[in-house]
Design a protein that fits this description.
alpha+beta, globular
């Protein structure tokens, strides 16, 4: 689970900016929206982020994606640039970019803080801490890249480190390129013989498997199309997901039934499909089964009209329907596992009622998952839907053009709080466009 994120000098965020999923003690509404961790920290299930166009909402999501990619994939060689973009609207000397992220992981909910200072070519500082409670942290390690050397400091968070483990860690650190995180490098090693380093692997696995990011844009490349089509594979392999999908779509779209048909195909047939493997724009997707054979999967939707059943190819469905199916896969995982689901422009292609249903379904069914999303849809901006600490706004500083981020719970609300949408649209919370001369109309 995500606890807190601080960023500085990344994309449109010039100054140090904090976002957190901590439940505000004075906020008593929607107790079911709170996750009670074993460490006594109360975390929120959701955060909705509002703001006008071009102020940094998508940048904020991109920063989380950058952190995930930086840790999961790293770089391939010493000439690769790191996926970080600094704030550009400044005449000051270039500063390093920085992020600090706190996460709650595993069954016992230990909390870790991971901090990185970097630019496009070099990771200057990388530090990992473990929480001791009450805002006290034990350093696990800190790695610094200097002009002529790499320094590794091992802290009290590694008190049980044996001599062999210490030498191993030193060796891996010295052999890690200046544009690669030590955490990423260690993930490629067999750590089973080094039990004192298990926390490092626990942190890496959280970034590798617990963060799920979904962009709003159309599919841009083969990898993204293959990821989008994964719902078909899941529906083919999981009866539980197929039943979940049919229930969701019967309630919201009027389907009678979604069906997945399989057809085994030969390796020769794959050759002419190679350029479109798994990304065909037809009503079919190719996947490799557990038996190492290839299968062509086709999806159809049954509609009942005038008492008769009409199977229709899934490809004929609308963009909104396809978007809902894509979201349904993420919702399914969020309900059955512990995930941080991050979606940019959640409302894209969705009717307001579907959007509201999707959010309420998540709140009702999820246990230890979190849902962070940006939206322009104001009809859900209400105390009926969210706690005040689950509503965030982004706007840009007039002078510096730097993005700033703040929760509704930091604002002194006036008047009837039942009308949050009205107050937001009136500009009382910020995060709305300032339109010039309206007399032109």
């Amino acid at each position: 689970m995500l606890v807190r994120l601080e960023v500085e000098n990344i994309l449109s965020f010039k100054e140090k900016t904090e976002f957190n999923m901590l439940a505000f003690e004075e906020e008593k509404t929607h107790p079911s929206h709170v996750i009670y961790t074993k460490r006594g920290i109360k975390l929120l299930k959701a955060a909705s982020i509002y703001g006008e166009n071009g102020v940094g909402k998508s940048n904020f999501i991109q920063i989380m994606n950058m952190i995930s990619l930086l840790i999961k994939k790293g770089t391939n060689n010493h000439t690769d640039e790191l996926p970080v973009k600094p704030f550009l609207l400044t005449q000051s000397p270039a500063l390093n970019s920085f992020f600090s992220i706190q996460i709650c992981v595993g069954e016992d909910h230990p909390i870790f803080k991971y901090e990185v200072q970097l630019d496009k070519t070099t990771i200057y500082t990388e530090a990992l801490y473990k929480s001791l409670g009450e805002d006290k942290w034990a350093l696990i390690y800190k790695r610094r890249t200097l002009e002529e050397e790499i320094q590794l400091e091992k802290g009290p968070g590694l008190l049980a480190l044996s001599e062999d483990e210490s030498k191993f860690l030193d060796l891996i650190s010295m052999g890690t390129r200046k544009n690669l995180l030590l955490l990423t490098r260690l993930s490629n090693e067999n750590l089973t013989s080094y039990p004192s380093l298990s926390d490092l692997l626990l942190v890496y696995e959280w970034f590798s498997s617990s963060m799920r990011l979904l962009p709003p844009y159309a599919i841009k490349n083969a990898d993204e199309k293959r990821e989008t089509d994964a719902w078909i594979y899941l529906a083919w392999r999981s009866k539980e997901y197929l039943e979940f999908l049919n229930e969701l779509c019967f309630r919201t779209l009027g389907w009678n039934k979604l069906k997945i048909f399989e057809q085994q195909i030969s390796n020769e047939a794959i050759i002419w499909k190679q350029d479109n493997f798994g990304i065909s724009d037809k009503n079919e997707v190719v996947f490799r089964g557990d038996d190492d054979k290839f299968y062509l999967l086709e999806s159809t939707v049954d509609y009942i009209a005038n008492g008769k059943t009409f199977p229709m190819p899934f490809k004929t469905e609308s963009d909104g329907t396809k978007r809902l199916i894509q979201l349904s896969q993420e919702l399914f995982f969020a309900i059955h596992t512990s995930k941080v689901l991050i979606i940019d422009e959640l409302d894209q292609h969705l009717h307001p009622h579907l959007l509201e249903y999707f959010i309420k379904y998540f709140f009702a069914k999820s246990k230890n998952s979190q849902f962070i999303f940006t939206t322009h849809q104001t009809h859900i901006l209400s105390e009926e839907m969210f706690r005040n600490d689950e509503i965030w706004f982004i706007e840009r500083d007039f002078e510096t053009k730097s993005s700033c981020l703040y929760p509704l719970s930091d604002i002194n609300l006036e008047g009837d709080t039942r009308y949050l949408e009205k107050q937001y649209l009136e500009g009382r919370f910020g995060g709305i466009p300032t339109i010039g001369n309206k007399d032109v109309f």
